[in-house]
Design goal:
With about 350 residues, the chain is α/β, with parallel strands linked by helices. It is built from 13 helices and ten strands. Helices cover about 50% and strands about 15% of the residues. α3 packs across α8 and α12 packs across α13.
Length: about 350
């Protein structure tokens, strides 16, 4: 057993109210449980929390069988058995169809959320809970840093977010993985080990291998998670400022087909605020988003230069057409590309 796991304290019952307080407003919560240590701990702890609360939401367990490994079917069956033992309903969701040869992890992640959201809608659940930990948060920050993410990306995962009007809850985000393993060891609960978590072809695994060296320099998971939390706070403040700026710059209320800004007002804002206002509008109207930050920055620079020189400019980005003409900046849906259909 690794030293960190040997020293880690199991999660106590006294910690559960704070961990799962975000569950309180929802009627039914789908627990995403793969059978690995983190999600098995989520299942075990959420069930203990619910037992102590007479008005807690209903918990339903879901396992995604990606059909990428021969063991996946047996692992899903193991989760189903544990869920039944705990008195919870279980659903196995299968990722059908051909799997891509490149970008497999991102494709699997997209499929996973799609299947979970479809299940939530069928069951009338209004939230999905995942087992992301502080270690996952640290790896996410490092990966996004390596890709040149902006402030919103470097703020990492949030405890509460939303996808397709379904809340995504991450109650274990402030806990280290070692404490979850210690919890399972104390409860004598078995869990699966996914060999892809050791496959260096994947960026997350490579970042994980860097962790000991980074920790030796003071950049451990706790410090990275703290940085993410502070950046999330700053990101929220900037988002609120962008809300006010958007209202100030709008010529007409934004619609699904067109948004018009006062370009003079827009280009008086600090660049970060103007970028956010512009990016939101492109995401809302375009159909190829979310817009990439680097491309948005390039567009904004071209627009700012054209505005300063009194020149007209028209560009397309993320499925939106952006037109600067005098004091008006108009964003509309771009015509469909040839071969892409209407």
């Amino acid at each position: 057993m690794p030293a960190a796991e040997a020293r880690a304290a199991p999660v106590g019952d006294g910690e559960l109210p704070a961990l799962f307080s975000d569950f309180e407003p929802y009627r039914r919560v789908v627990l995403a449980v793969s059978g690995g240590p983190d999600s098995t701990a989520l299942l075990w702890l959420a069930r203990r929390w619910r037992d102590a609360r007479p008005r807690a939401p209903e918990l339903v367990v879901a396992t995604i069988d990606h059909r990428l490994r021969p063991e996946s079917e047996a692992e899903a069956a193991g989760v189903a058995k544990l869920a039944r033992t705990l008195g919870l309903k279980h659903h196995t969701l299968v990722w059908e169809g051909r799997k891509p040869k490149t970008g497999l992890q991102q494709a699997a992640r997209t499929a996973r959320y799609r299947l979970l959201i479809e299940l939530a809608n069928r069951l009338g659940a209004d939230a999905i809970a995942t087992a992301h930990t502080r270690d996952d948060q640290a790896e996410t920050v490092l990966i996004r840093l390596s890709r040149g993410s902006g402030l919103s990306g470097l703020a990492g995962m949030r405890r509460i977010s939303e996808r397709d009007r379904i809340a995504i809850l991450r109650p274990l985000l402030d806990l280290p993985k070692a404490r979850l393993i210690a919890t399972l060891n104390k409860a004598r609960l078995a869990y699966a080990e996914d060999p892809t978590n050791r496959d260096p072809r994947f960026a997350r695994v490579r970042m994980r291998k860097l962790a000991p060296a980074l920790a030796a320099e003071g950049l451990d998971a706790a410090r990275l998670a703290l940085v993410a939390k502070r950046l999330a706070r700053a990101d929220a403040a900037l988002a609120a400022t962008a809300d006010a700026a958007e209202a100030q710059a709008l010529i007409a209320a934004p619609g699904r087909r067109e948004t018009v800004f006062n370009a003079v007002a827009l280009f008086t804002f600090p660049a970060e605020i103007a970028l956010r206002v512009l990016g939101r509008a492109i995401d809302a109207i375009g159909n190829e988003g979310p817009v990439e930050l680097g491309k948005l920055e390039s567009l904004f620079q071209a627009l700012a230069a054209s505005h300063a020189g009194g020149r007209r400019l028209k560009r397309t980005l993320a499925g939106a057409a952006v037109t600067l003409a005098g004091p008006r900046l108009t964003i509309t849906r771009a015509p469909a590309r040839r071969g892409r259909g209407a």
